[in-house]
Design goal:
With about 210 residues, this protein is mainly α. About 70% of the residues lie in helices and about 0% in strands. α2 (about 25-40) packs antiparallel against α4, α2 crosses α10 and α8 (about 115-130) packs across α10. The N and C termini lie far apart (about 60 Å).
């Protein structure tokens, strides 16, 4: 438990507070959104406890140390990250690698130290797949793949690769849903502010009303 707490504290500290969107609050938001999806009957009957742990950890770390710019920017700027990851899902690769660097290199943060080799590999596979799936460049490609499968056997028989793929799509949806809700909240706040401004102006012009 101590290692888990240390890991979570280190991940939170790795987010850049001045980043207006991809910050620790966003990470927590995505984690709670994902948790809601995982409690639905389809997933609750499909996932083992280790999958749930991996999914929640991936949600919390999916934007770890986000610099506040896009993949396109990093690629066009020929940054070290773009060179290292060969222009392929640069930010997502960066987040995943940084997450495991904290887990395995930072003292007291290895929450997997009591895991078997198979358990560690399963956790790592799931977390990496989920973080990489948040690259919206491939969102519709993955969505079409899922639709095709749903149109055939609706995942009547599920293999390990199916679980990893579905969790990846869940991560993408949770990230997207969080962004839409934040956008909705921002717009509602702006509307409230404008309405209050109008009411104030009206009261100034008509003090008796």
């Amino acid at each position: 438990m101590e290692e888990l707490v240390n890991f979570l504290v280190a991940i939170e500290a790795g987010y850049i507070p001045t980043n207006p969107f991809h910050n620790a609050v966003h990470a927590a938001d995505v984690m709670f959104t994902l948790r809601y999806f995982l409690q639905r009957p389809f997933f609750s009957n499909l996932l083992a406890p280790l999958d749930v742990l991996a999914a929640l950890l991936a949600a919390l770390s999916h934007d770890f140390a986000h610099p506040g710019v896009s993949n396109t920017f990093l690629i066009n700027a020929r940054t070290d990250e773009a060179i290292l990851y060969n222009d392929q899902s640069v930010l997502e690769m960066f987040h995943a690698a940084g997450t495991f660097r904290v887990m395995l290199s930072k003292p007291g943060c290895d929450l997997t130290k009591s895991f078997t080799r198979e358990q560690f590999l399963q956790l790592r596979e799931t977390m990496i797949a989920m973080i990489l799936s948040t690259d919206m460049k491939y969102h519709f490609q993955h969505l079409n793949r899922m639709r095709e499968r749903m149109a055939t056997d609706k995942y009547a028989t599920v293999q390990r690769k199916d679980v990893v793929f579905l969790l990846g799509q869940d991560a993408a949806v949770a990230t997207d849903s969080s962004a839409m809700l934040d956008h909705f909240h921002t717009n509602v706040t702006k509307i409230h502010s404008r309405v209050e401004g109008c009411l104030h102006a009206r009261s100034q012009c008509n003090p008796k009303q």
